Amino acid sequence: QVQLMESGGGSVQAGESLTLSCGVSGSIFTAAGWIRQAPGDQRELVATISRDGTTNYADSVKGRFSISRDNAKNTIDLRMSSLQPEDTGVYHCTVGTFIGATYHPNESWGQGTQVTVSS
User: In sequence order, what DSSP letters do the residues of 50-68 get, joined into one string?
Assistant: First the structure.
């Protein structure tokens, strides 16, 4: 029943930065992750944060993206730097659970926010 609302997407040139925010209507004290999907491509889990604050990143974004939890604002944020055209896609914020090292997002999905990176 947690409602998620992504914002902050836009169109940028390669090398620029964007910060995405995910407003959480319910409790924020849960594991969370950002998932992106380019047109015609499979979804990719790009970043997760566990309940204790441990973060993990896909190799494709490690060193460029940073996921964080802002308890005061009740948001899950994704700071993205050095953006590349391959980062283009719709970005979805999720909440879920870890089973071992595997992240399982909840079934509910929002509309996401579009990120477009041009050369």
Answer: -TT--EEE-TTTTTTEEEE
Report residue 18 CA to chain centroid gap: 12
Nearest-5° Cα angle at 80, 39 to 38: 5
- Concatenating the DSSP letter of every residue in 24-92 gives ESS---SEEEEEEE-TTS--EEEEEE-TT--EEE-TTTTTTEEEEEETTTTEEEEEE-S--GGG-EEEE
Is the model's pLDDT at 27 over the cut of 70?
Answer: no
Per-residue tokens: 7: 């914002």
Q: Output the CA torsion 27→20→44→105 (10° steps).
A: 10
For 88-97, the pLDDT digits (tens) are 999 999 999 9
Query: DSSP state, 21?
Result: E
How far, in Å, CA of 40 to CA of 115, rounded? 15
